[in-house]
Amino acid sequence: MFDWLVVGAGFAGSVLAERLARGRGERVLVVDKRSHVGGNAYDRHDEAGVLIHQYGPHIFHTNSEAIFRYLSNFTDWRPYEHRVLASVRGRQVPIPINLDTINALYGLHLTPDELEAWFAARAEPVAEIRTSEDVVVSRVGRELYETFFRGYTRKQWGIDPADLDKSVTSRVPVRTDRDPRYFTDRFQAMPLHGYTRMFEAMLSHPNIHLMLKTSFERAVSEVKFKRLIFTGPIDEYFGHRFGRLPYRSLAFEHLTLDRERYQDVAVVNYPGDEPYTRITEYKHLTGQVHPKTSITREIPQADGDPYYPVPRAENQELYRRYERLAAAVRNVWFVGRLATYRYYNMDQVVGQALATYRRIQDTVPAKGAPRQAPAKSDALVPAAE
Ligand code: FAD
Ligand code: UDP
Predict the structure, then answer these.
(1) Which of 61, 77, 101, 335 could pair with 183 in a Cys bridge, judged by C-beta atoms 3.0 to 4.6 Å apart?
(2) What does the alpha-carbon distance between residue 214 and residue 199 come to, in Å, rounded to a whole number?
């Protein structure tokens, strides 16, 4: 009998497994239907020996010292500040849009103050900023919106920015200085030996038992457990009874090239007619020295593994219905990007998992501590429809 079944060995599941096993001394079974740990942050050496990210580029950044310190228990770090170029009008310019982007694209020599006025002259007033189109058009005007955002967003999400919540393009700032960094967080670094090694360290504990290539369904039929952490899609857990939550998927085209370098920075974005949104060259991220280099093209698609919840009001409403069901199921905790249908970065998922652990500490007596018998109605898996 396990004290906990944890479904999913990504950040949400691994952090909770680690805390429950080390923090509370309880027996944890972690299952994942994939053949590896790490969830979407999984990295591996490809056939040429280049360290690549199987599910696209993962760059760690956070403003939370607590989250950075927590992960530092399981890895050393390689300092890395992310830089991205956008391929527009036949050249590569910095994104987020900054002073250099505009001066290069328009052959200007503006100062930061002049650029602010330049943006203001083009910005279209929007009474209430609601959509991902509003965010950009109200700040820099329609031409830059169309150059950098409309095509990329339509490809990435399969819908127009006007139909997407403002939170999506709000992730990318607009700057009037020359700061070329994609993120400005206090802590920006890559796990020194990769994400997978960090996950292995997290899950390496005598109280943690790991079963890969094992679905939730199979685990439920084969093992006994008292409580459940579920990090898969919440609508799947409830048999899609209110309908499917939309998730956006991607195809990853991994290539190894017989040259040392492919591009100037780790990621180049393609807002134009190409089928892919971005190309990543991993050696910039990892610092690996190798005579070859490996890149990944990301091609968005509707079907396939669920990678992105799609932030828009109607999806949020549907999620709320599942969330209400989830709140009524005892002894089950829903955690992570898929189970809480939130467009979360890695650090936010770690923060959410640590907060869940604190809630468990507050409400569930640890093994060995006196506790009440579970209520008869405690149902770990939903009744069949
Ligand atoms: P996941 O990593 O999705 O893990 C869930 C796991 O559960 C999976 O391994 C899955 O196989 C397993 N599972 C699901 N259902 C079942 C089931 N029924 N039975 C068994 N197992 C199941 N974040 C950043 O901070 N920086 C970045 O640069 C960044 N880049 C990203 C790029 C891409 C292309 C994507 C898709 C995401 C990116 N992220 C980035 C976000 C990051 O991947 C997530 O925040 C994080 O991985 C979420 O962790 P999780 O544990 O919630 O989910
Ligand atoms: N975006 C865009 N053009 C860019 C970069 C981003 O239109 O060059 C939009 C797009 O909708 C994207 C969102 O901003 O999905 C968030 O970008 P981010 O780089 O944070 O995406 P992620 O790394 O999560 O895929």
Answers:
(1) 61
(2) 18
Q: How far apart are CA 208 and CA 301, in angstroms?
A: 36
Of ligand 1's listed atoms, the one at least distance from the Cα of 12 is 51
Give the pLDDT band of residue 369 (cuts 50, 70, 90): low
d(C-alpha 202, C-alpha 196), whole Å: 10
Ligand 2 contact via 219 beta carbon (within 6 Å): no
**Residue 11 C-alpha to ligand 1 middle, in angstroms?**
7
Once rounded to an integer, what is the mean pLDDT over residues 144-154?
A: 98
| Residue 308 alpha carbon to ligand 1 centre in Å | 9
Residue 336 CA to residue 326 CA, distance in Å, equals 14
- Per-residue pLDDT for 6 more than 80? yes
Closest ligand to C-alpha of residue 337 is 1
pLDDT tens digits along 206-255: 999 999 999 999 999 999 999 999 999 999 999 999 999 999 999 999 99
Count of CB atoms situated within 10 Å of the CB of 71: 22
Q: Would you state the pLDDT for residue 367? A: 79
pLDDT digits (tens, 9 = 90+) for 248-305: 999 999 999 999 999 999 999 999 999 999 999 999 999 999 999 999 999 999 999 9
The order of strands in the sheet holding 332-334 is: 208-211, 28-31, 2-7, 225-230, 332-334
Q: Of 258, 264, 260, which Cα lies nearest the Cα of 279?
A: 264
